[in-house]
Amino acid sequence: MTQRKILVTSALPYANGSIHLGHMVEHIQTDIWVRFQKMRNHTCFYVCADDTHGTPVMLAAQKMGVKPEEMIEKVRQEHLADFTGFLIGYDNYYSTHSPENKAFSQGIYKALKANGKITVKTIEQLFDPEKQMFLPDRFVKGECPKCGAKDQYGDNCESCGTTYLPTELKNPYSAVSGAKPVLKSSEHYFFDLSSCEDFLREWTSGETVLSNGKKQAHLQPEALNKMKEWIDGGLQNWDISRDAPYFGFEIPDAENKYFYVWLDAPIGYFASFKNLCERLNLDANEWLKADSSAEMVHFIGKDILYFHALFWPATLKFSGYRTPTAVFAHGFLTVDGHKMSKSRGTFITAKSYLDEGLNPEWLRYYIAAKLNSKIEDIDLNLQDFISRVNSDLIGKYINIAARSAGFIKKRFSGCLKNVAGHSLIAHLQAKAEEIAQLYEEREYARALREIMLLADMVNEYTDANKPWELAKQDGADEKLHEVCSVLMNAFKILSVYLSPILPATANAVAAFLNIPALLWDDATRTLPENHKINDYNHLMKRVEQAQIDRLLEANKQSIQPAAVENKADFEPVAPVCSFDDFTKVDMRVGEVLSCEAVEGSNKLLKFQIDLGFEQRTIFSGIAQSYPEPEKLVGRKVIAVVNFAPRKMAKFGVSEGMLLSASSNGKLFLLNVEDGAEVGSKVG
To answer: The domain containing residue 646 runs over which residues?
Structure first.
């Protein structure tokens, strides 16, 4: 087999949030593919990094009272711990805030500029009059100019996929302060993407001939169709600069101008690999130069296809570097059929999963059983998760060893018979290339169906031969020895096939079978006569419902009002009012888009509330009850919407009132059940 050289990446997690199970879908998918390639003895490196630049990181560090560099390093360590807990085997996990990335970013920019791909022009940009700063795309929100979807960011619509300028948003507002932004002129630097159309039409529809002679399309069919649609619609030149204040790399010879995070983030793949090569004494240029024979494969979510399938290849092509071999996109994760929800407890962080003691290989297996090569969303159905893990991994796979290892140890001193040529073993071995091809094509669900069909055959063999009964029969030792040796070899073959998904279990199996770490070719080799195995220790436990219940509870956002300590200390009931008086008050369900403390006040919080039919700014005197107001974002509240706007001293105008309950001198927002939709009338 021709040995391949493959550089593999996952999209870079942003250094301003926790890793959740949605992230894990991509990194599990990538890790499985990488482990498979390494088992085939290909030279394969898997690199990633934290995406560390931009306004969100700058503002988050300011709130914490620390330097951005300090915050991003702490977050990187937390991210890496989460990924390591899920057995993600990076060869290097780095940071985009690195000397390597700065050198690459500035070098690529200078090459693009020399190639005539950089232009400069003065543009009108949205400016936050309260925070006195230009607003990056992701800090402007509003309605999509194409489909009308609300609460979309200022660069692309997550609903219809359209890209646009933030100034094209309808009803924009600042995600930093909630203020209505104003237009202000600023000089910006652009990558001339429109001049790259011919190249991008060729690259997006093209393919690469690999070193083994096989062809690899650059994009999946669904991605290619979307790219054609975007190219046909006309490519827009790409704004690659941002104004100070900004946390990132300065643009050479451009005072107070910084590279937009989406320029230096994918370049972070190169930087992480360069850092790895320096440690391993490898020549990174052999992998990254324009005519490199190595492969470069990116695993990403479908929401960042535009950047990876258009901007990134064009940036590389016209700066003199190699372009990607393939960009593999996947869909989103839902939990029990819904988007991840904090109130339901299904916005599940990776850390909470691990902290609750759930086996990471359970999730690796379940995610793999849902993944294919298409760009499809997958669902984590928690009841199905329990059932499938217990049925497949425990009932079908692990029990093969559990039901036979003891007989080998007790009756035959731990030594196996040579069962080469046995029909069952031969059938399992013959599936090696078929299953390998499914892994290669990222058809993990099909691969696992094939593997579990083989496990069914092994279990049928067990039930037909009943080693527990053979052990009781006189003169049946020869047959018992053969049956149990067949089962041990079958278990080894299945372990090879499952190894990319269950790496920790595979290592434990290798130790139990007294063999080196499993490689793919081990599926076709039978353990020799008198090979001695070690004592069997149970390899995996069952999932229990109580574990899932605790996981959901651990992830529920606490939205219950604090308990009243003195139950006799209530406000007196107000005078009677008529029903007609009550009906004059228009109360609606709203959702918190942003919430922040008000400078100069120790009581007020400033909310931006989505009411469905419009968005409003509302001030509420509940600051003492909510010391971390940013945690209220996404919460549903009840707002009175037909009060006259009220001037709040020097702080601004409040366009409504939030309902809250008073307890011990503090105010607490009222709870709203999940079924109540934004804009619904209360009463």
So the answer is: 579-682
